[in-house]
Design brief:
Blueprint lengths: L1 E6 L5 H9 L3 H12 L3 E7 L2 E7 L4 E2 L2 E5 L2 E6 L8 H12 L9 H4 L5 H9 L16 H10 L4 H4 L3 H4 L2 H4 L5 H5 L1 H13 L1 H4 L4 H10 L17 H13 L5 H11 L2 H13 L8 H9 L3 H9 L6 H14 L2 H14 L4 H6 L5 H15 L11
Helix pairs in contact: 1-3, 2-3, 13-14, 14-15, 15-17, 17-18, 19-20, 20-22
Amino acid sequence: MTTRQYPGAVLDRQCIQNLLSSMPSAIVQHGRDYVYQERVSHALCDPRFLLARLHGYQDSYVPFCLVEPQALQAGCTCEHSQPCAHLAALLWQYVTHSEAFMPPPLDLLQDDDPIIPRWAAGQFPWHLIFSQKPLWQQPWDDVKSLAYWNQSTDQLRSIRRWVDAPLARVLPQLHPSWVQHPVWRSRWGQFIIEHWHKLTQAPFTYWWTIALQNPAVPLDPLWPAYSPLPQEAWLHAALNTLADGRVEVYPQFSILIDLAAEPGLQWLETTIALKPEIDPWRVLTAKILMRRNKRAQAVALLRSTWPDSAQGQQEVRRQLLEWLPLEQQIPYLVAACLESPDWDCLEALKPHLAEDAWQSLKQAKAERLSPNVKPNDPRE
């Protein structure tokens, strides 16, 4: 295996393009030929590395690009001097077809061994990686289009695998657009009902691992089966989450607060106090108060802290709407309606607003969604 360092500390398209520009044009052209001949497969992308399998004319190789402090370490398992055409093919594939790269399975990222040296030593677990991005990792609308226009393709037939494959393999990699689609959510809800006993026999850490990899998957119906959690069962998971820069800590702490018994709540409260960046909008602290039946204090805390970011405002508003009685929800429902592209929320608010207030909201929403259109009646 040969490697070479390049300037840069992040893996983004501009950085990769700069790296390609620094390579001899003949090597880049050779790499492009590999891509056009579809010799690049098993393409993986993580914030820390790019990696793929390249089927050469005589053997298979593993070109990679790894983030290191203040530099990128790039190379290949071939014995050629760097940069090689195999590496150029990996980079060209990323620049031109980044949508073809898949996230690596979570179990490959949990190994303490250095990733690239272990894989380059011939121990790469190819049996765990799809050669091409499966349909459940692609946007829902793209899959529907493929199903309509080309029902005989091998790739389309693989759609059955998202039903038949183990949940631990499919759910962490499911494209968010599937999770958000009402058809999928309905089927998922029915699946939970039909297989509740079997699903809840899995240990908490099974579902927790899936939640780490894909927070979009709606696992909320399953959590009550594990509450209250024994402290040992979730403390280890929480500590791993804190130490893991690949996952967002905030939603995971929110889950733990919902499930923890009082000793766990005390630990979480202390952790948040020591690391306030975990709870930038004070929602987690408010949820701990709610768990202790201190609703008034929880609501007062959120009302006194209004975030600057849109994401923070949405999260605080969502939590207040869950806790407040209907008559106190109206200002937050109005704000949510103005931000939503959906017009149904306007009709839902009509019984709760005076006619002139409702007309003003209607006009403001029309102006916000179509600023160049006179908003007499946006739906006529």
